[in-house]
Amino acid sequence: MSAFLIYSKQNSLAPLLSLLKIPSGTTLTNEDADVVIQWGGNSFTAQDPSRHVLNGAEGLANVSNRRLMLDMLKWNGIPTVDSNQRSSKVSTIRRYFVTVFQQQELALFRSRGRKVWLTNEISASTDDSYEEIPMNRSVREVRKVLRLAVRSLYSVGLDFGGVLIAIGLNGGMQVIDITPTPRLNGDLAQKFANAIHEYVAVYSRKPKPVTLGADPEFVLRNKTSGKMVLASRYFGKKGKVGCDHIWLRSDQTRKQLPLAELRPDPTQDPRQLTVNLYKTMLFAEKKIGNSSIEWLAGGMPLKGYPIGGHIHFSRAPVNSSFLRALDSYLALPLMLIENHHSLNRRPKYGFLGDFRKQFHGGFEYRTLPSWLVSPRVTKGVLALAKLIAESYTELHQLPVLNPTVQRAFYEGNKDIVLSAVHSVWAKLEKTNDYSKYQHYINPLRDMMFRMEVWNEFQDIRVAWQIPPYSHKKSLIV
Fold first, then answer.
1. Which of 76, 127, 455, 469 is the most exposed place for a label (fewest CB within 10 A)?
2. pLDDT, tens digit, for every residue of 240-266?
3. Which H or E element spans position 383?
4. Which helix (H) or strand (E) holds 425?
5. Which residues have C-beta within 8 Å of that of residue 60, sequence separation ≥ 6?
6. Are residues 386 and 237 located together in one domain of the fold?
7. Whole-prediction pTM value?
8. How far is CA 386 from the centre of its chain?
9. Residues 6+ apart with CB under 8 A from 242
């Protein structure tokens, strides 16, 4: 697999170019390059079907318009300055500049001064007014800054760059600016070179079969009173069925845990994962032993308690392309059948590209609401996730890069999202493995295109035929 770094003439990249083991230039001299890293300029789109492009024209256009960039950050729940503050001073306690490549922070710089000029600070972020500091994740502020930088770059459609973050006088964080072309010193150039070489090497490897896991959440409700029943009344924190770490709002002991969580055995087969989920639900029913306690799934069936349907991918390192495919071909379509209460999760929870790295070398995708509402939805979601995980390099159309579609996702405009999903679904059906999973995906697809909204206030035991609603016929086929 070949790669090429293309850059614009106005960018001084001498420290980086001397370290690269791949060809580079101001024009693409290798038309057969499989991977193009675009450092400035906007010659290539991230949706190019003939090559894999990092920092495509879409993301570069988004950050070139400051007002649009700040709007996109706000839609994604990222705190920012006001768009009219470009030429004014912002009082700060500290300022950080974070360089990021894909979902990995490369370096962290901290300022010495107390004022920041928005007009020139971003271009001088690695000069003598900043010092590089360790990325000590045990420090809460550092950990939040690093996480915010990764989120910010992804939200505007970039794969690498630098993010300037201010800590205000009240301790709050604000993203001040984003650059796709951070100024490089020798050490930072080496870090970018290493990241580029590693990414190209990993991208060139034949993908391994992906193992799926999941930990979807649900809540309990008393059928008579309609009030929440604490999950911690029946489950501990660990086990096949346990409690999420979120505690009751008024609980200072942090021991009253409202959200239940299923933790089925992982598997490479989405059908088997559904079977494993069903087994954990039967186990949960035995633990509860009370037919009058309803089980609810969805986005926010009980006010103030958002729940999610997290999916784990092992043997599959996280990267921007993978996340954007999940957002475009799973999160956007699923939004079409969400109850409108799911909007209340976002953007604090369930924002686009929400992920968490895991010990197994893969990651947890956290954008989706709890898809436990029915076996049909569950089987479709897990089959789609498996297909996307092993086919995302074939999925070049990414509507999530479009600011209009992003805004529609957060505001609940299903008509715009439906149009975007229609425009890309044919690409999904042309992937090599679609036929393998179509038995599970097509029923979900039909629901989505009809915008058949799920009922997240209905007891999911009915659809899953969990006692006392069980029948002889198996739902897991």
1. 127
2. 999 987 777 666 566 788 999 999 999
3. helix 375-391
4. helix 414-429
5. 38, 40, 41, 42, 158, 180
6. yes
7. 0.94
8. 16
9. 235, 236, 260, 261, 263
